[in-house]
User: What shape does this take?
Amino acid sequence: MGEKPQSYERRLQLKHFFEDRETKETRRTWLELQVSMPEQASEGWVNDGKIRLSIGEDRNVKGSFLLSIDEATRFLKALEIAITDHEVEKAALWRK
Assistant: This one.
C-alpha cells in the first residue's frame, strides 16, 4: 500500500538581497516556510502535519529542514525568547 506524498501549502518566503563583494552583482538568499496540514488516515486516526523550512540562494535550494509540529513549536519558542532578549538588551542600551 503506497503512501501519497505530503502536500505543502501556506508558503511564506523571506528574501534578502545583497551585493556580491567579488562580482558586484545583486544576489538573493531566501528562507521559505511550507506547511503540510494534518490528515485523517483511512483507518480513522489523525496523522500530524509537518513544517518544512528551506534555505536557498538565487533559485537553488541550499538546505531544507522537515520539522515535526513538536520541533516547530520548540523552534518558535526559542525564536520568541531570542527576540525578547534582543529587545530587552536594546532597551537597556538606549537607557544608558
